[in-house]
């Protein structure tokens, strides 16, 4: 008997009575506010930022102002140019040279200030979202869902994507004497641009 | 040869001698506990979430074989290779074979308690595989050749100068660097080239979803996502108890996990892996290593509900003042003390005694494991199995006799007052009284409650019946 069969057989012999432990209905609890203000407050708490339009009002000018030293600005969206398109980035090694990656997220979660990305938004180069120094995420207010319960219940991406990440602010660590550092090993900053 | 029990008390004593480390450790963990409380108070539904989480986990454990089969079928359908490991040795063999097949010599990994449980690095390295931990805290521990001292913050027992010393030795940084920011940056700069050239990546995982064949990894540093997505080969190791039935059940657990662990609403990254990336290969190793046996332990099976948040450790006064390493086990703190004896009853026989039984661990547990009750039950089991140390056993034996007989007890108590006020210190504070090592014994009272009651309330002679009480 292989390990699979041994493990399953032991579990069958040892488990508590299934009838005594029914599955509760799917939880739908807590604040159901899916508003922009709630999202922004949560995003700030987790170290993320809102990229505001400058006097020119375009995403390009806001990025140029916010990241004046950026050499490689990589775009994963059709409506923004950048210096290189993600489709033209062939490998993680090449993606590692990116200063700013611009992507569009299909939805955000108001409770957590989280944005979702999958291979569909990253042209299947998933590592690009983590190798870039900074990430700018285009998000629409209409695509906010209230909390984790509504997100998992409503969003089809969780059932279709092979790789689906909820990013909540930039990478962070507090592993050295409890000091919180934003910008650990993944992105140093995460900014949301409302469209 | 008989295994020696871990001498937790002695290791804790050493930890207590180092005042700066002790003070930071105690305060840092208590701060995490307070941040957890703040988050809890923001959610009126907190107790409902805990109840729901507990119910989902108990249901899943009672139906684990069916859910594992469902998970396996869905994961395979999505193109994931699923492996089953009965124990640590089999787990390490499976991982080694996958790496060998790909000619992989360098493995980058994120933190995984299961790989610690299996002591995987020690198995792979002599076989020519360089394993690099990419989580900052875990990397510090790897470079210092220590186990993680906490399941969420592995190097929480270290101060900035400790990290500076370790990094200076390994990364050629300034040994006097006193900035956590620049030390963290040194880790980023050292890890990046290793990540970009690695042959394979490995992660642990927090949840398995039966309905979709997904596994979920909750982290903060971004290193897990880098380890999983940069190399073409991703191996994930998870315990078989990590399952939840439905995708929608994750809502309950994700809302509880990081709030309980660090007091942040969610981890910076919550990543759902449902299949290999384009051109890549993905493997999952489902690890038993004693879990299926634990499911059959009537008083202890609910410890399998644990989602490894570490809240019980942060709140535990013994853990905070003894440090994770003093437990001498992969899992430390209250949760460690109730699961470690299932791995080796003799070796970890001392751990269930590392508790004041205050019940705080149970109160903060997001999946409602009755941790302090299980600590008590383990003490009973260990006593029955004769795994108590000599002094503890003899003292308990004497105490049992004493407390079983009221007359003897009262005589002894009256005697204690005389003893405490008159006996020299070397008789009161010696090896038979470990309690007195770092504490002062209480001031003796002038009169016990019983003698006061006898004098003031029982004037009609009923006191003569005391021996029958």
Automatic annotation (TrEMBL), chain A:
It comes from Acetobacter farinalis. InterPro entries: FTHF_cligase-like_sf (IPR024185), LUD_dom (IPR003741), NagB/RpiA_transferase-like (IPR037171). Residues 26-189 form the LUD domain. This is LUD domain-containing protein. It comes from the Bacteria.
TrEMBL record, chain B:
Gene3D superfamilies: Alpha-helical ferredoxin (1.10.1060.10), NagB/RpiA/CoA transferase-like (3.40.50.10420). It comes from the Bacteria. SUPFAM superfamilies: alpha-helical ferredoxin, NagB/RpiA/CoA transferase-like. This is Lactate utilization protein B. InterPro entries: 4Fe4S_Fe-S-bd, 4Fe4S_Fe_S_CS, FTHF_cligase-like_sf, Helical_ferredxn, LUD_dom, LutB/LldF, LutB_C, NagB/RpiA_transferase-like. Residues 297-318 form the 4Fe-4S ferredoxin-type domain. The lineage of its organism: Bacteria, Pseudomonadati, Pseudomonadota, Alphaproteobacteria, Acetobacterales. Keywords: 4Fe-4S, Electron transport, Iron, Iron-sulfur, Metal-binding, Repeat, Transport.
């Amino acid at each position: 008997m292989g390990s699979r069969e041994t493990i399953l057989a032991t579990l069958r012999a040892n488990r508590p009575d299934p009838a005594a432990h029914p599955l509760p209905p799917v939880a739908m609890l807590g604040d159901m506010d899916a508003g922009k203000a709630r999202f922004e407050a949560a995003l700030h708490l987790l170290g993320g930022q809102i990229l505001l339009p400058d006097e020119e009002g375009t995403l390009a000018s806001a990025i140029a102002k916010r990241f004046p030293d950026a050499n490689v600005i990589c775009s994963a969206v059709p409506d923004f140019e950048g210096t290189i398109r993600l489709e033209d980035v062939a490998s993680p090694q090449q993606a590692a040279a990116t200063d700013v990656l611009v992507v569009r997220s299909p939805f955000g979660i108001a409770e957590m200030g989280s944005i979702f990305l999958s291979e569909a938004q990253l042209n299947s180069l998933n590592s690009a979202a983590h190798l870039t120094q900074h990430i700018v995420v285009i998000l629409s207010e209409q695509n906010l869902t209230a909390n984790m319960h509504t997100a998992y219940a409503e969003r089809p991406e969780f059932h279709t994507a092979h790789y689906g990440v909820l990013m909540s602010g930039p990478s962070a660590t507090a592993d050295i004497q409890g000091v919180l550092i934003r910008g650990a090993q993944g992105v140093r900053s995460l900014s949301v641009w409302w469209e | 040869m008989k295994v020696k029990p871990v001498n937790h008390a002695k290791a804790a004593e050493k930890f207590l001698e180092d005042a700066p480390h002790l003070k930071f450790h105690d305060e840092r963990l208590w701060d995490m506990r307070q941040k957890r409380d703040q988050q809890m108070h923001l959610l009126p539904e907190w107790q409902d979430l805990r109840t729901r989480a507990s119910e989902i986990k108990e249901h899943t454990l009672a139906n684990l074989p069916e859910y594992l089969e469902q998970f396996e079928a869905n994961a395979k359908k999505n193109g994931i290779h699923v492996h089953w490991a009965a124990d640590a040795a089999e787990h390490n063999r499976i991982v080694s074979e996958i790496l060998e097949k790909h000619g992989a010599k360098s493995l980058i990994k994120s933190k995984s308690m299961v790989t610690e449980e299996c002591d995987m690095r020690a198995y792979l390295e002599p076989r020519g595989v360089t394993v690099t931990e990419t989580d900052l805290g875990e990397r510090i521990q790897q470079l210092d050749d220590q186990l993680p001292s906490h399941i969420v913050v592995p190097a929480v027992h270290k101060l900035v100068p400790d990290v500076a010393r370790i990094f200076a030795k390994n990364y050629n940084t300034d040994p006097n660097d006193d900035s956590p920011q620049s030390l963290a940056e040194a880790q980023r700069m050292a890890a990046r080239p290793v990540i970009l050239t690695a042959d394979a990546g490995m992660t642990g995982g927090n949840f398995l979803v039966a309905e979709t064949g997904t596994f979920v990894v909750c982290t903060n540093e971004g290193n897990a996502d880098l380890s999983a997505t940069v190399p073409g080969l991703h191996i994930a190791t998870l315990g078989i108890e990590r399952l939840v039935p439905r995708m929608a059940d994750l809502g309950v657990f994700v809302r509880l996990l990081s709030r309980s662990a660090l007091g942040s609403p969610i981890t910076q990254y919550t990543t759902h892996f449902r299949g290999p990336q384009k051109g890549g290969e993905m493997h999952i190793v489902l690890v038993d290593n004693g879990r299926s046996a634990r499911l059959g332990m009537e008083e202890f099976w609910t410890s399998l509900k644990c989602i490894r948040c570490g809240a019980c450790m942060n709140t535990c006064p013994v853990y905070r003042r003894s440090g994770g390493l003093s437990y001498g086990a992969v899992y430390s703190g209250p949760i460690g003390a109730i699961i470690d004896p299932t791995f080796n009853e003799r070796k970890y026989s001392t751990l269930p005694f590392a508790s004041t039984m205050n019940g705080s661990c149970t109160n903060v547990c997001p999946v409602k494991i009755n941790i302090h009750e299980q600590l008590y039950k383990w003490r009973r089991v260990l006593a029955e199995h004769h795994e108590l140390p000599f002094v503890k056993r003899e003292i308990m034996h004497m105490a049992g006799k004493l407390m079983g007989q009221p007359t003897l007890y009262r005589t002894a108590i009256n005697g204690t007052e005389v003893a405490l006020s008159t006996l020299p210190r070397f008789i009161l504070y010696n090896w038979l009284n470990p309690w007195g090592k770092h504490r002062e014994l209480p001031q003796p009272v002038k009169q016990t409650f019983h003698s006061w009651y006898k004098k003031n309330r029982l004037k009609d002679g009923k006191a003569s019946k005391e021996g029958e009480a």
